[in-house]
User: What shape does this take?
Amino acid sequence: MNNGIFVVVLASAVAYGTPLLYAALGELLAERSGVLNLGVEGMMLVGAAMGFWAVQKIGGPSGLVLPLAVGVAALAGALLALVHAFLVITLRASQIVSGLALTIFAGALGLSSYLGNDLKLADVPANHAFHAANLFGLQDIPVVGPVVFGQTWLVYVSWLCVVLVALYLSRTRPGLNVRAVGESPQAADAMGIDVVAYRYAHTLAGGAFAGVGGACFSLAITPQWTNDLTGGAGWIAIALVIFAFWRPDLCLVGAYFFGAFQALPFQLQARGILTQVPPEVFSALPYVMTVVVLVLVSSGIAKRRLGAPGSLGIPYVREER
Amino acid sequence: MSVRIERRLRQPRWLSVVVPLGSVAFAFVTIAIVLAATGHNPAHTFAKLFQSAFTDSGALSATLVSATPLAFTGLAAAAAFRMNLFNIGAEGQLYFGVIGAIAIAVVLGDGVAKPVTIAAMCVAGAAAGAAWAAIPGVLRAFARTNEIITSLMLNYVAALVLNYLIFDSHSYWRDTTSPSAAVFPQGKAIPDAATWPFATIGGIAGGIAVPLGLGIAAVVGTALWVLYKHTRFGFELQVIADSPRAARYAGMRTRRKILAVMCISGAIAGLGGAAQVGNFDHLLDPRSLQQQLFGYSGIVVAALARYNPFAVVVIAVLLGGLKNAGFALQGVDFPSGLVGVMQGIFLFSVLGGEILVRYRVRLFRPGRVSRTEPAA
Assistant: This one.
């Protein structure tokens, strides 16, 4: 039963959705503070390369090396986000162009490819990788086993992150401050909240999450380094934040939804189901679905009730009201 | 000491020349540091770059080949970005231009005069690109859907359409007869009448071959400049971009304009696809098209040119040179990925430098009253 297509697709939806989830959570934090970062794809790719590099270079038991590698990936993502933060917060540059520049700088024709080739990461097997954890030994129970208990530690940590981010935003003082900074930096500033510090901190956090999301590919899914291994996941993550109405809990749902569409064509092909439908149709589904969902979300009522942070994309200049 | 950023009351004209030049100089210094830090000799690398982009035998011709699609996608991005419409779908729109141009070229075959075929390819390419761009355009104009994400998502769909046409179907674009096509799927070659000519300039070392496509790009750039600067349509676009509310009160048709700009942008990108097929590729090659990332590089070109159509063509030649040199030098001297890193550093510098045009940065000591009067 656990080898049936439904369970397998569900289980791999969780696996493929996890990098999207990390990246989307990070982008959500940045956007909630009013900073749009279109450089997610670039930060993920560099995170993937640096995470894989750390695994190859650091010696020791897997239990120690893998968390360290994830940390390295997060640091790499945060450093890249710092460039974006400096440009758009301090230098007040256009967030859209700066984010695109970050993806070009770091992406498949840029830094990530440079690092991957310079550090000789291509075509080598991973020294350590995240494997299915078989939590409490319950992997073999029907349906729930592979989907819930047979995932990697990256998945379980991502669930923890969703809870933490949701609680942080809705139940803590700094979380309230972030939302204030994103909705109305003028009001937040008048309250004595340091708008610049909050925006920097959350843009960097967003970069760190994106780096971890990239590492999910090179340490768990692939697990190897190839150029452009994320294949546009960073862009889907940005769409996912809109899809989820800027809410962490809906990010989780959305991430697995998109993950399922990524897993589906492969499984259908492997099982010889629906072979008369070209595989490209299924591959195109996540992208088409994103467009459809965006159209639904941007229509009237939904937008008014659950819209974007009020000052998203607008630089804050204290003396210009 | 502390830093204060103040708004300039007046923006001196010289600043808008000096600041970008300063930014580019800053970028070169940064790149030199990056090169030195990764164990390359910056002076040596820059010299090599310049030689293989411009001065080596045949280098300039190769640079113009790389520059042609970038000029088109750069113009496509500039046309939309200037109106605050962030069409980043030039990539997919160019793919559709390729599909349209090949279709019409194969239909017309060898029996039609070259100029007619070329004109038909231009029209078909532009129409196909505009049609693909109309999807995010309609959604933006009538459903207020963010065009950044939709145009981008459609790039991936367009790439899958290319793969389908060549790898997973026996489509009109696929070559099913030649022996090599039986080994690996490939596109149908366009007839000789549909290949675009080159103009040869100068007699030294075989001269410089200027592709017809680049000439068309220059014409399109000029047309775009006239359209935006000297027509009522262009004026209304400026108003809509600067203040949508004012435009609405003045009775301008905002939605139609948004759709029109997206279609113009897509048509230019599609024309770029037609030029790529006519001048260089001569068949539909999904792998090669997807690896080149013409559409995304076009955004770099447009941003560096600050959305000025004439500057776009010049920057396209410079970045085409960088790309061509990066390709020629790839190896120990010039690791892959460095081209993207360099483009990124250029972009960051120019973007960050723009603050100096609008603001002045002052150093002052806290605790002392500043002697200059405060900004108004």
User: Anything to note?
Assistant: Residues 62-90 of chain A form the longest helix (29 residues).
